[in-house]
Every structure is written in C-alpha cells, then in structure tokens.
Amino acid sequence: MSSQSTSKLVYESPYSLADLRAMVSEHFSVVDAFIDVAGTPTFIITPEPVKAKFKGLTRRLSPLQLFPVLRSGKTALVLKVFSKPPVKADRKGLSLILFAVTLTTILIAGYVLWIGNRLWSEILMPKANPYLQAAIYTACLAGIIGSHELGHKIACSRHGLAASTPYFIPGFPPFGTFGALISLKSPPTNKDELFDIGVAGPLTGFAVVIVVTLLSMALGVPVSEVQVKSLEEQNLVGPVSWPSSPLLFLALFWIVETLKIFTLPQGWTLVLAQVLFAAWVGSLVTFLNLLPIWQLDGGHVSGAVLGRKGHRLASTIGLGVLVVSGYWFFALFLILLMTASRHAWMAAEPLEDVSPLSRWRTVFFPVILAVLVLSFVTPPG
Question: What is the pTM of this model?
C-alpha cells in the first residue's frame, strides 16, 4: 500500500517573480505574472499541450528546491510555484527492524498453521519438518507483500520520484503481518505517473500470487478417491470454490488441467499445499488495494483515469463493495480516515492534471479491473 504526503504548500525562495517568469517563459507562453494573496508566484499561460513542457519545467526548478503546480482556469492555464517542503530522512534502521520482526511473526504464523492443521501435520506429511514448512510459508507471503512494495519503488524510481523505504507491519496468526507501507516524498508529475505508481504494486504482487498458487500445486499431495471421501467426512478437505477462494485460483487450475501441466492417475485428487493460504492472503491484499477508494492504490488509478468527480463516485461504490462483501470494518476504518483528513474523499493529485492520461494506460485500465475481479474473496469464516 502506498500513501502520499499532503504538506501545506508555501513559497520561500530568494528567486524573484521576474526570475521565475524568465524560467517559466522558457517552456510556456506567459500572459501574466503576479503574487497572489497567499504570497505564491502565479503565472497565467496560454492553453496548449503541456505534458512534455511541464516535465521540462519541473526538471528546471527541481535543483532550485522549487516545484510548479498547473491547473485549468476558466479561460487559461494557471501555474503556481512553491518551495519544496522538507523531506524526512528514511529511518532505514527502523525499516530493517520491522522487516526482521515481520519475518519472525510470519514464521510463527506459518508454524502455528502447520501444527494446527491435522490434515498435513498428522495425515499427509507427518514426518515433515514444521520449521521448514513455516519457512516456505514465510518466503511465499513475504515475497508477495515485498514484491508489492518493490513494484511501487520501481515505478517511483522510473519516474524520478522519491519514495520512502518500505515499512513492514508485523501481525498475529494466521497471517503474521498487516502488510507494508511506502510513502511518496514528492508528488507525481502528471496522471501517467500517478497511474503507474498505483498499478505497479498490485500487479507485481499479483504476479507473485500466481507463482505461489502454482507452487501450491507443485507441492500438493495426490490422494486416492477413497481417501478423499474419508477426509471430506472429517471436514479436513473440500473443493476450492468461489467466492471463498478467488476466481484466480479456479482460472489457474483450469489452465493447468487444460494444458495437462500436472497429470494425475484416474480417480486421484490433488490436495493443494498449505502455501495456498499465502496466495489467498495475497489475493486479499491485491483486492483491497485495487479498490478505487481514496488514497488506496486503486484510488490513485481511478483518480488518474476518472478525474476528481469520477473518483468520488468510484470511492463511494468501492466502500459499498466492502460493506456488501463483508469487509465492513475495513470500510468503517477508511471512512474514519477520510473524514479526519484535510483532503477527505480526494484522490492523490499530480502536479499537473491538465493533460489527459496516455492512450495505452486508458486502454489498460480494464485489465486492472479484471485483476480486481480475479482477486476478490469473501472474509474467512
């Protein structure tokens, strides 16, 4: 999950209005320049394609510890220049400590899951090392969550944006973690960058969920039809079905069966390895993050694609989906955060929101919705 800081914007710089006008004029046709009532250098520029020019101006001002913000006015474009707010240094020591603690809590959760599952620890693999099984679970779940944050980090680096070190959050069994957080230290330049940052984390994590799901099949144990019936009578096994399991699982199982990647003797059934639970948690993380709500990853995406009004509607729909599907507590938590925020119901905004989202990103948006649908699961129990 990513977040964006929303510090109050001010202008404190030795550069005069004339100096700034000269810099802005290198990229735009300036109609007027003045200092507004808040003391902010403001420039009225003629309407024109601005995406490339604005990025050029941003690069021009960045070494001066300044950044521009561009918005549409009634008859022209309005550009303001602000000083960069102070950026807090990464607490890398804390990040490493939290990462180590989170690995430990996931390992504990994996151990508890293994010894508490009679199907695996007593029937299918009684001689298996529980610590090794817990380590496999830890690698899978930490890999999913870590890849999610790595996706955000790579997207930020690709666009030259500063982002914090990921901070992992330890938790309790059965998950062992509450995920991780990464925050933007500088806002995205335009809608393209906002879109990329929003989708990079969930898509990277989703790819690893696919790998872990396939791994659960590779590590699974074939059992005979007679044994399956006995296990079903003891409520130790059951079919993988939607919506308690994501559609992704069913789709992957169908693909594997159709392509005959794994083959079983007639009358035998594959009992999937316990790491499937790590893939289930990863699907849940992907689903929740891709919902088009406020400052979630999906909120960044919907803000870039749908604009401010569309984002508000999408947030309302997303909260409704949470409530209807049983995640009412998470919905309430988000509503409380949104109510307490100075920017309630608003998506993260790029420095320049005048130019439209690139065409291929708009075309790719249905793929993001498909990933959201494939990842949907109802709460356990």
Answer: 0.91
